[in-house]
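Q: What would this chain look like folded?
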Amino acid sequence: MAERYQSFGLATSPAARAITADDGVAMLKAREAKKDGLLAYGNGRSYGDSCQNAAGAVVDMRSLNRIRAFNAETGVIEAEAGVLLSDIIAHAAPYGFFPAVVPGTQFVTLGGAIANDVHGKNHHRRGTFGCHVESFLLLRSDGRTYRCSATDNARLFRATIGGMGLTGLILSASVRLMRVPSLDIVEKATPFRDLGEFFGLAEAADQANEYAVAWIDQLAGGRSSGRGLLFTGNHAEHGSHVASHATGALSVPVQPPFNVLNRPFLTAFNAAYRWKKGRSSAPCHVGYQGFFFPLDGVRDWNRLYGPKGLFQHQSVVPEDTARQVVPALLAAAREAGQGSFLTVLKRFGSIRSPALLSFPRPGFTLTLDFPNRGASTLALLSELDRITVEGGGAVNPYKDARMGAEIFTASFPDWQRLEALRDPAFMSSFWARTAKKELDGRRATAEAAE
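A: My prediction, written as structure tokens:
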């Protein structure tokens, strides 16, 4: 295929077959879709295989990219599922609105943001993306298009938000944006010596700021273990209302034959980053691109991990165990000799998502990126899974490419509620590897007992 329908982590095989959105819609309306044969594909920014379907075809949704309506009084925007968040930002910014929740990249589709129930640096204030979805149109393999909201087809509404594309094709959605004084951010960086100091700062930072997130120097050990920078931010009262169309001033044009982000590079990078960002504690005025989407400025930066790609591990653990579990996760990575290029720690609040399945929950979430070194990396990730689950936490399925069924079911004990509402024509490689495998195992056990 001219287009490689790959996940952003590059550690899984690209889709074997893809069809256009128009063909997918026609197939569903004609009730011709085969069992487990389809899955929506947005802009390929998922790290794992929740955007892949080895059993069938992916449906490229990016041609459904029109903004249909925008209410400049209420901030409600209606757009097709393939519209990028960058387009929504550009459209709404002149009217003083911005998405209430944005992930670490603006190059995700609206449908993907809903299906993954993405979160950002302000979960403590705004919850997940799904908290701001008013309604959407969902096409299923029975040929019907359902309007879903908190009151109309409410079960499908809750299953589709965070449902990883398994309930059908999202065609369009209406989402509430939030009013902001400007796009620019007043950012403050506060250095902390260790995780104990971070935990002491985190709650007060959330209470005082719209945005808060910490960068951790993952390679630092000994007395420096857990050191980092806490970034807080708020929209500037006076600043730009014009979105910049940064598509990557820099790029990685070719795939290096090896992982560029090795330990010597990471050690030097962490030292330079900590010095540059932590040298002043005074608030500074920064553009929204640099604050929310720093890596969007480098096109195809994931290629730096080499041909084997990367694995991202994101966990969340309750507040009462975080002070033990987070240090244990960092220590496990150091002891395994694995370096994480980006290590992010932040606090989730208590705002509940309307989704049946949603990763954020009260506590602290740690994100680690590792180059794929084969068996040694997989062994480390399994150890991180174990530490997380034993600490009462969960592993993020939306970014996963290898967790076992037992970790998924422990992380999401209500997963069968989504399975009950899954469209039979839709399947992902992630769901086949976890939920379907668990169901098949239970059936085999029951049959053997008869």
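The domain at 185-405 is CATH 3.30.70.2520 (Alpha-Beta Plaits).
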